[in-house]
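Here is one chain, start to finish.
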Amino acid sequence: MINFEKYKLNNGLTVLLHKDDSTPLVAVNVLYKVGSRNELAHKTGFAHLFEHLMFGGSANVPDFDTPIQEAGGENNAFTNNDLTNFYDIVPAENIETALWLESDRMLQLNFNQKSLDIQKKVVIEEFKETSINKPYGDFWHELSALAYKKHPYRWPTIGLKKEHIEDAELNDVIDFFKTHYHPGNAVLVICGKFDLENVKFLIDKWFSNIPPVDIEAQTIEFEPIQSEFRQKILIKDVPSAAIHMAFHMPERLHNEFGVYDLISDILSSGKSSRFYTKLVKKTNVFSNLDAYITGSIDPGLFVIEAKLQSNDDIDEARKLIWKELDQLKEDEIESEELQKVKNSLISSICFSEVSILHKAINLSYFEMLGDATLINKQEGEYIHIIAADIKRVANEIFDLNNCSELVYQTKESGF
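Its structure:
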């Protein structure tokens, strides 16, 4: 059980505090409720760009990293479809340094053309390295566009095209900052060793004077139900053929999210999983086979990734994968197999509660979803799942008309 105190400042900033005296450190986590889903279709990649810009200096701090390092700490950030998360880990006695730094960049980034040009160059190089020059690097661009037609999940976090970042102007990023990086759109979580009254005083000192922003809630376009099989075949300079399948599934807060999560683990978690034991180990078709879920705020995807031995294996690979999916639909899973997967997943949840950083990030995430107390209810999503649930949900999701299939063929195929 993770106990915490929650309150709000007058400017709308949500604060969660969790004491853990077993460590001499403190994790300061600031989550902004902005990801690629909040971007415009003609201006994508901005949330990821801001992950970089937020380290480029702010109103009173010319360089973010140096004060953290001098305080004996470390920091980093990540962005996805739904959020941008910044965290600092510092010795408990230096917590004020982290709060000062986070408050200053929430108050006002140091916007100038030089800083923007530098970070644009960094992001564009990252785009080229990960999405253009890397084998299968365009996978998320292609699969997202195939599976989504309306929702902004149809482009990946790094952006739809590098030109959107190349063409970004100073006024564009200033507007994006004012819209999304303000107290009312943020969650501040502090985990670790601290004096409760002192940390409240410091939070008030550094954050309460940041002015609130009154922004109209954004409307995200709803994705219609997919009703036909979609397929795209790419002939690329890749090391081997590959098949990627994406099935639409419910959002993270859906009451059966845990069932979908368990199905992905039944198929591909570890060397006792069905994909590994039956398809990777016992056939010469696959070099690698994986299944996972995106776990997004809005309805997401159940993804299967298969790397193959050759182009000649594509049809056989597809048949073998569907055979395993159909078996989940037809036969109830043995209780021993189900319990083993449940135990592994629940153990992972328990281990995540050891680290102050993981606790800070998870508290922020569940608060963004609407209720931080969900952090203490994760095990309950899995404990009561039975074999009939697995079979029923498998029948719901693994429908050919709900499938978007992306196929990579190597150039040697001759097509």
